[in-house]
Write a structure and sequence with these properties.
mainly beta, about 0% helix, globular
């Protein structure tokens, strides 16, 4: 069974940086992408950054382009999200998930999800 564990969430000032990590500590899972998503109370979950196992398959939400960088360790059981120049609107619970690469991004609807790590950015 896949078990995704996120870490790295914290409270920072605007303009600061954080690096989130997500590791699958469970059994091997055949997926072709891993992704970061975020959600705040009362809002729908949104994709943040996704990475596919195929070379060059990376997707970013417009709101984080140029500030966030997704990367994957080798073996591909760990994915990172480097977040720079954080803004208060980045405040959310960040989730890691695995899924299938469809339509240019990672669709984790039927995949596996972690428990989340909280990121809070104060102005």
């Amino acid at each position: 069974q896949v078990q995704l564990v996120e870490s790295g969430g914290d409270s920072v000032q605007a303009g600061g940086s954080l690096k989130l990590s997500c590791t699958n500590i469970g059994s091997w899972y055949s997926s072709n992408c891993m992704g970061w998503f975020r959600q705040t109370p009362g809002k729908e979950r949104e994709g943040v950054a996704h990475i596919g196992t195929g070379e060059g398959r990376i997707w970013y939400a417009e709101s984080v382009k140029g500030r966030f960088t997704i990367s994957q360790a080798n073996p591909k059981s760990t994915v990172y999200l480097q977040m720079n120049n954080l803004k208060p609107e980045d405040t959310a619970m960040y989730y890691c998930a695995v899924g299938g690469w469809y339509g240019g991004r990672c669709d984790a609807t039927f995949g596996a999800w972690g428990q989340g790590t909280q990121v809070t950015v104060s102005s």
